[in-house]
């Protein structure tokens, strides 16, 4: 809440509220691991979260917004033990499934936040606190009348940029061409960020080999949709 614009951010754009019951395994993972690994955004005390205290160590903090069912997130956290890896998600069964996957992989550097990432960033993350933010395949809201619901809007990108440390990265990916173009336009207009791959054709980042291919990306490929990655860096 550093300027008058941020309160105008509509939290509705950051997710779709989907219901769903947990499986037995997800419920077991929630009961066993949530007290240590998870927190609910709406129940956080005022002010920034002390990530060093929560993780039990000092390390770069990376936030992934929208971890879904945790397939990608668990693998990325396991592959980067040097990071304090945060996953923000609104779908409880997805967080339960992520804890199951993390348990199977022996991941210890992951913490989970249940709730709206816009509220999290605005009220509970200090400026310059993050080494990176990842936003992989957010809801595309493909109908034109719904484009205003997309999370990648100028106010949101400015908020993300304000929470990145100098040199920190904002990595986005989508398989919807028009949304990719919107992401490129909006992020390029944010003066605090620069496109790390501005000299590449179209300004797109090469697809990083470390980003797992999800079933949704496989489906997009089968349907003829090309996935685009964008990596912006805090100036």
UniProtKB/TrEMBL annotation:
SUPFAM superfamilies: S-adenosyl-L-methionine-dependent methyltransferases (SSF53335). Pfam families: Methyltransf_4. Keywords: Methyltransferase, S-adenosyl-L-methionine, Transferase, tRNA processing. It catalyses: guanosine(46) in tRNA + S-adenosyl-L-methionine = N(7)-methylguanosine(46) in tRNA + S-adenosyl-L-homocysteine. Pathway: tRNA modification; N(7)-methylguanine-tRNA biosynthesis. It comes from the Bacteria. Its EC number is 2.1.1.33. InterPro entries: SAM-dependent_MTases_sf, tRNA_(Gua-N-7)_MeTrfase_Trmb, tRNA_methyltr_TrmB_bact. Substrate binds at residues 143, 175, 214-217. S-adenosyl-L-methionine binds at residues 64, 89, 116, 139. HAMAP family: tRNA_methyltr_TrmB (MF_01057). Belongs to the class I-like SAM-binding methyltransferase superfamily. TrmB family. Catalyzes the formation of N(7)-methylguanine at position 46 (m7G46) in tRNA. This is tRNA (guanine-N(7)-)-methyltransferase. It comes from Amycolatopsis ultiminotia. The lineage of its organism: Bacteria, Bacillati, Actinomycetota, Actinomycetes, Pseudonocardiales.
